[in-house]
Design a protein that fits this description.
Strand 1 and strand 2 form a beta hairpin. Strands 1, 2, 3, 4, 5, 6, 7, 8, 9, 10, 11, 12, 13 and 14 form a 14-stranded mixed beta sheet that branches. The chain is 37% helix and 23% strand. It is globular. By secondary structure, it is of the alpha/beta class.
Length: 449
């Protein structure tokens, strides 16, 4: 399946400003950013509208599901556990309800949903993971279910492709800076706004003897490491593909610069950085081993809760994503998470699953009981202090992760080839050449080239 794709991320939050690290709401204001990619043969219109009103409310009602099976595949992080608990509560005690949380959800989703009947009735998707499922026809259009059960959803939550609704978004996310205020104050370090300043701050902290490895990031070999390149390359103003084509275009000065910044950051990180995903990095933070990190906003659900070391929590501050290389684009991407229903499941299972999940995706009670767990896209949500990083990313015009069919192939090629460079076994140019060669082989095999 080939697509001509226009991807728009349109964020409408309140207007906020920081005053002494407090997050203060002023009035409604819109932030918009878009990217455009075109391929041959088939038109795809993909509209993501992150709209968070502060007046109307969603009405929660128990679904009381008594027929059908609900079996969900989701990523593993605290916010999604909150959503799944709400969905189970909505479904009721008599529902046949189960959920599998896995950090390997993207590897599992294709084979699991391709089975007939599918192994799961629903998948929690993002603007990065939904595209390969759509390419293979593994998701069910939701128009009829939205008409029947979506009265408490906002139109802005509906993810639409070619006139059909394929997902319902419930949260926005982005990676941004976290820092430990006491250490910054003691050493006289200003809050960084560029990666050059981030590196300088980490070097100062190391030189002071306070921390040997002061920087933390999700550098685990695989998807996480690839995402760091995506962020850094966009921050340098890079374009992943030649305009209007699927021809990869990363082996250039911007690609080399992106890799070099990532390598310097890893040199200021735990030597086992290639094993550190988001969860491992959060453990480093909670253990007091890290003073500055670039991590997902959704991490606040566990890092800023009432468990763990409350002194570290009190010392934790959030800031917007940094720019890099003298550019004005933040080195991060905007994301949404939402629910999608498997195509290869029965109508009964699809309806039961949608009812339970949409109950969570429209629950104002859930959103406001957990204001720091996410930037919720739910009616009546009032953002907590922890929303500042994601909203800053939106306000800076961060690019939504490219939801184009062949981007997943490039993401996979990056994860396979970057390790050799970071371990000092090859040059940045050789690593990027290897990435391009691996991508070309896969893209040719799958008909994109």
């Amino acid at each position: 399946m080939f697509f001509s794709c226009v991807t728009i991320g349109f964020i409408s939050f309140g207007k906020f400003f920081l005053k002494q690290n407090k997050f203060i709401y002023l009035e409604n204001v819109h932030f918009a950013h878009y990217i455009k990619k075109e391929l041959i043969m088939k038109k795809l219109f993909y509209l993501v509208l992150f709209l968070v009103p502060f007046v109307s409310t969603g009405v929660f009602a128990s679904c009381n599901v008594t027929n059908g099976t609900i079996n969900i595949l989701a990523n593993e992080f605290t916010t999604l556990r909150i959503v799944m608990e709400e969905a189970q509560k909505c479904a009721g005690p008599d529902a046949d309800f189960s959920v599998t949380h896995s950090v390997d959800h993207q590897k599992l989703q294709g084979p699991a949903l391709a089975a007939n009947p599918s192994e799961f009735t629903a998948k929690i998707v993002t603007n990065g993971s939904i595209t390969p499922l759509l390419n293979k026809g593994l998701l069910r259009p939701l128009n009829d279910l939205v008409d029947k059960y979506g009265q408490n959803l906002q139109k802005s939550q509906l993810i639409t492709f070619d006139g059909n609704i394929y997902a319902v978004a419930f949260m926005a996310n982005a990676q941004h800076l976290w820092y430990r205020e006491s250490i910054f104050n003691e050493l006289g370090i200003a809050v960084p706004t560029t990666y050059e300043e981030v590196i300088a701050a980490a070097e100062t902290i190391r030189s002071s003897g306070k921390m040997k490895n002061p920087f933390g990031g999700a550098f685990k070999a695989g998807w996480n490491l690839s995402q760091e390149f995506v962020n850094m390359y966009l921050g340098h103003g890079g374009e992943f593909f030649k305009p209007g084509t699927a021809e990869v275009s990363i082996n250039n000065a911007k690609g080399v610069a992106a890799l070099n910044v990532i390598k310097r950051l890893t040199e200021l990180s735990n030597p086992d950085f290639l094993t550190h995903d988001t969860n491992a990095t959060k453990i480093e933070w909670e253990s007091g081993n890290v003073a500055i990190m670039h991590l997902w906003g959704s991490g606040a659900a566990s890092l800023l809760d009432d468990e763990g070391d409350q002194a570290i929590k009190a010392d934790t501050r959030l800031a917007g994503p940094p720019t890099v290389g003298g550019g004005s684009d933040p080195a991060t991407t905007l994301w949404w998470d939402g629910l999608a229903i498997a195509a290869n499941t029965s109508d009964e299972n699809a309806e039961a699953t949608f009812r339970a999940l949409v109950g969570a995706a429209s629950s104002t009670e859930m959103a406001n009981a957990n204001p720091n767990a996410a930037v919720w896209l739910i009616k009546g949500y009032t953002p907590g202090d922890a929303a500042v990083g994601v909203l800053a990313a939106a306000g800076m015009g961060a690019t939504p992760y490219p939801s184009i069919p062949h981007m997943g192939l490039l993401h996979g090629a990056l994860s396979d080839e970057m390790v050799e460079f970071l371990q000092g076994n090859e040059s940045a140019e050789k690593a990027l050449a290897d990435v391009e060669a691996a991508y070309i082989a896969k893209a040719t095999e799958q008909g994109f080239l």
